[in-house]
Design goal:
Length: 119
Amino acid sequence: MAVKMAEDDELEELRRRKLQELQKTAMEQQMVEEQKKAQELEQARKMQILRQILTPEARERLANVRLVRPDLVDNVENQLVQLASMGRLNRMLTDAEVRDILLKFTGGRKETRIERRSK
């Protein structure tokens, strides 16, 4: 009889641990989903602001540069959003102005790469 009670206690302890693990996993998944949702909302807000302050050509330029230098574009976009949020940018930026901003962020240097082909 004592063996049966010990087995029942062990079984109950295993069930309790499993339930705790499942609850912990569910909470972690919920937190990850909430973080993902918050990031999506922030990204949507950022894109809305960029649509208001950049001409279509300027947005296209940033999209093209993002293919090569996503870190650079992220920095430029964050700066532009910050300026717009502070009210320091109250007009639309043109493609030429965005090109100048990109040059300032890169230090005005252009990267040239020479590849040699062997025969």
